[in-house]
Amino acid sequence: MAIQIVPQLSDNFAYLVIDDASKECAVVDCAEADKVIAAAKQHDVKLTAVLTTHWHGDHSGGNEDISAKVPGIKIYGASAENGRIPALTNPVADGDTLKVGALEGRVIGIPAHTNGHVAYYFPKLNAVFTGDTMFVAGCGRVFEGRAATMVDSLKKLTTLPESTQVYCGHEYTEKNLRFALTLEPNNAVLKAKHEWAVKARSEGKWTVPSTIADEKRTNPFLRSDSPELRASVKKADPKVGEDPIAIFAKARELKDHY
Ligand code: ZN
Ligand code: FE
Fold first, then answer.
1. What's the gap in Å between 113 CA and the centre of ligand 1?
2. Which member of 19, 29, 132, 214 is catalytic?
3. If you average pLDDT over residues 108-131, what whole number do you get?
4. What is the pLDDT of residues 33-67, one digit of tens each?
5. Distance, CA 50 to ligand 1 centroid (Å)?
6. What CA–CA distance (Å, rounded) separates 214 from 211?
7. Which domains, and CATH codes, for the chain?
């Protein structure tokens, strides 16, 4: 299988992206190098690159260790993270492409959680790795940008084909969906997804990947147009107004305290 989940820390995901033909593989985010190296060995593939989504330790804290243990491994990450990605060898920016064996990956700049946060999109695999920008039914906290920056970044991801599989940085799905239901209690797709996620987690299964289509229908941070969501946000803050960015910002604030 071209994509393998490698659980990291308490609720992080790293992913092996495998070119089946050449058996070369990249890992998206590395917090615990030994687990990543063991997973590569298990799947009988050769690790050639780390694709770092952003500088936070739970996504890049294993970079030094994996560089020491896998000689020659390339460490990709955004130059816009301003030197905060450990062991960086291949700085990238929005629009750049890279290769994992014969597989082509495209870098999509999606700042706001951090200034240099990027996604990695693999058209042939129909998959995008979104780090802490887009979660299943959620989005990352806005630490280094503004609400409008996050709205733009999320929008950029939603321009990918609807069938694109979304692989995010954390297993936060169940709580995200519970929060989403507080804003859209009558969204039938959302209700069904919540029930599915509760069952999946109770069986010890992961909830990734999602799809862009699913996120458009259930992710509260993509749904400033939903009348029900708008009404819920306005009920929480009657002064919020009509601006979609203000609606997003208020929803994000409500989630921060949920
Ligand atoms: Zn983060
Ligand atoms: Fe994180």
1. 7
2. 132
3. 98
4. 999 999 999 999 999 999 999 999 999 999 999 99
5. 16
6. 5
7. 3-168 (3.60.15.10), 173-256 (no CATH)
